[in-house]
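A reminder from the course coordinator: this example appears on the midterm review sheet, so study it carefully.

Given structure:
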């Protein structure tokens, strides 16, 4: 029998797959952990247990020492060159033909030129760039291979270049020879390099010299002591530890220990992610059930882990430059403090598996995360983000200073450049403002920053609302004032419900005169039409409001207030009027019913109550404590009796608190004022 796939099972399976994908990605981007698990610095105390050599291994020279020895060894390097006799024969033959044609040139000139060029070729002509390169590298001689394949060591200074050979011939002329006459013979045309670089033999010579430089400078025997806890790491100790690391890295391709360590990394990452999964499932079911919210949290974890892994794996920048506090800030803005801090802790513990000095990293990041969550209750202004960044920098600086003094006990050993990394990281937190907007669009979130922007009554939509339907606009403001305090008392989102109240009746802009608050002349256009049609005109303001909201790109959470502020209730005025005037007629119930849906949150329920109470309060003949109390109780109790709040997450205690706030607010609004006495005439 095949197991039945229920909606709940499918939901759990989907979340499990998401978390498994996140675990797989994290494992892949993490740098592989070798058997060498220590982090250390020369001049600082060794903070781990006693380390002894697990096997015999050579002591490797550090790169600087090895490079210097190679450089010193190459000082004895000599490049190989071969003499090309064909070049000399060809050029001397061409020179002879040319001199024959110069009938006006005296014979002594011809003899001098021919003898000197022959001498130059016998000495050797080398390329200028080869000579410069050899000289710059400190080489003074080369090995010249003659036609008998015998090498001769010759000094570089003895060779000619084309330029120096030409100058030699001109400058060493005997007395009686004219310089101008020699130059007119175009001697340089017959000068070509006859020494060719032998790359094969030269490279073989260089390789042989480099092989003579040893990579190691001794051996460590198995069991030999390397370093113990509390000892200062010297240059010698560092060399031994680095040599051990090299040998362990060589073995990790086949060593069972490496595979087991990699498995341990997977277990730790999976365990930490499972804790996050259980937290959402047990304590934040609203986030768990919303697939977009779950994906968002996992994406934030992956982003921070990826940047940290990049910094550690490729050593491109200091790991503390990564703005780790960005995660708790953004999660706090969209969710709550507990979720933000829990997610930050899980992420920090994962990154601690790969960073140097894990204890210091966890200490600093937990302090920064707590600071971020504590100093950012509601983000409504840009200045708050700047203040949070400053607090986080102070947190980093103080915790790092305290930990360094505890470990080192010496101010001179504090790495002051880390404060630059802290400053850069804190500055990068200011980009959270732009990321908030991006994540809002991607995942359908609604931040307090956006809510504050929507509350601006000078926006084009609200200005049009105030001009077209002034009575409805004032009603919306009164409802907003009424419901804000009530929702605050029941621990709801008071800013969200305030904005929802301001926009809940914008659908009345299409036909403002159908609503009594806008009928300044006292003429009601619905008075002369049948009750069903009139009811439909009133009901249509909900759909009209949704269309206007979509047109102006209002967030979906605000549109939900428009959609639910009447729920599935009746247009009671027209329904009762129809029943009273046509007692025997069959009532078309749907013609008098709003489409709904009914409220699903305490904020939506409170807005429905406030909307009905505020509208009805205008019809009271007198405003006494008794009449206001009776009005509030009657309207809200009727809504409860009609089942309008059955899907809303609001308790009876919350309802009583809301009633109490409404009563006090209405009594304040409609309190009796003192009559000012007129001044008596004298």
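Designed residues:
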């Amino acid at each position: 029998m095949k197991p039945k796939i229920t909606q709940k099972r499918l939901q759990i399976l989907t979340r499990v797959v998401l978390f498994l994908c996140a675990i797989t990605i994290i494992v892949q981007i993490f740098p592989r952990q070798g058997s060498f698990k220590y982090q250390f610095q020369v001049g600082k105390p060794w903070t781990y247990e006693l380390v002894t050599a697990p096997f015999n291994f050579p002591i490797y020279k550090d790169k600087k020492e090895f490079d210097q020895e190679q450089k010193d060894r190459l000082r004895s390097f000599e490049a190989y060159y071969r003499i090309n006799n064909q070049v000399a024969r060809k050029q001397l033959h061409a020179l002879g033909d040319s001199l024959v044609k110069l009938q006006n040139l005296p014979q002594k000139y011809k003899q001098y030129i021919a003898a000197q060029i022959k001498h130059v070729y016998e000495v050797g002509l080398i390329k200028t760039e080869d000579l410069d390169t050899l000289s710059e590298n400190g080489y003074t001689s080369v090995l010249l291979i003659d036609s008998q394949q015998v090498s001769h060591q010759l000094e570089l200074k003895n060779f000619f270049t084309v330029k120096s050979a030409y100058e030699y011939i001109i400058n060493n002329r005997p007395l009686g020879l004219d310089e101008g006459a020699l130059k007119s013979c175009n001697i340089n045309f017959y000068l070509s390099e006859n020494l060719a670089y032998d790359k094969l033999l030269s490279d073989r010579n260089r390789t042989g010299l480099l092989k003579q430089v040893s990579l190691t400078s001794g051996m460590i025997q198995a069991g030999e002591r390397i370093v113990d806890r509390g000892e200062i790491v010297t240059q010698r100790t560092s060399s031994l530890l680095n040599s051990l690391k090299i040998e362990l890295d060589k073995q990790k391709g086949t060593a069972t220990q490496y595979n087991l360590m990699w498995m341990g990394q997977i277990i730790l990452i999976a365990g930490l992610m499972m804790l996050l999964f259980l937290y959402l499932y047990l304590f934040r079911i609203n986030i768990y059930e919303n697939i977009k919210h779950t994906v968002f949290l996992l994406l934030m974890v992956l982003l921070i882990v990826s940047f940290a892994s990049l910094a550690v794996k490729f050593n491109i920048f200091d790991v503390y430059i990564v703005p780790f506090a960005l995660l708790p800030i953004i999660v706090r803005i969209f969710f709550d403090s507990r979720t933000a801090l829990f997610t930050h802790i899980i992420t920090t513990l994962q990154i601690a598996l790969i960073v140097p000095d894990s204890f210091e990293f966890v200490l600093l990041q937990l302090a920064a995360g707590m600071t971020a969550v504590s100093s950012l209750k509601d983000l409504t202004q840009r200045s708050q983000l700047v203040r949070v960044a400053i607090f986080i920098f102070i947190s980093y600086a103080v915790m790092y200073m305290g930990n360094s003094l505890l470990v080192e006990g010496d101010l001179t050993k504090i790495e002051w450049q880390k404060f630059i990394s802290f400053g850069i990281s804190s500055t990068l937190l200011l980009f959270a403002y732009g990321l908030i907007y991006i994540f809002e669009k991607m995942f359908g979130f609604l931040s307090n920053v956006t809510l504050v922007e929507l509350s601006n009554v000078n926006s084009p939509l609200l200005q049009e609302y105030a001009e077209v339907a002034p009575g409805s606009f004032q009603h919306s403001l009164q409802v907003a004032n009424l419901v804000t305090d009530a929702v605050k008392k029941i621990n709801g989102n008071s800013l969200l419900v305030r904005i929802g109240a301001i926009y809940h009746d914008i659908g009345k802009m299409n036909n403002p005169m159908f609503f009594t608050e806008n009928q300044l002349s006292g003429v009601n256009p619905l008075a002369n039409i049948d009750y069903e049609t009139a009811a439909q005109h009133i009901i249509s303001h909900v759909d009209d409001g949704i269309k206007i909201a979509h047109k102006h790109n209002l967030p979906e959470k605000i549109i939900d207030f428009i959609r639910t502020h009447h729920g599935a209730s009746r247009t009671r005025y027209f329904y009762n009027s129809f029943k009273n005037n046509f007692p025997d007629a069959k009532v078309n119930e749907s013609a008098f019913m709003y489409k709904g849906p009914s409220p699903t949150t305490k904020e939506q329920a409170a807005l429905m109550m406030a909307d009905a109470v505020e509208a009805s309060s205008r019809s009271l003949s007198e405003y006494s404590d008794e009449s206001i109390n009776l009005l509030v109780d009657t309207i809200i109790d009727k809504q409860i009796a009609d089942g309008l709040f059955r899907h809303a997450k609001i308790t009876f205690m919350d309802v009583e608190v809301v009633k109490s706030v409404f009563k006090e607010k209405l009594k304040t609004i409609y309190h009796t004022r003192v009559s000012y006495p007129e001044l008596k005439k004298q």
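The chain has a mean pLDDT of 87. The radius of gyration is 44 Å.
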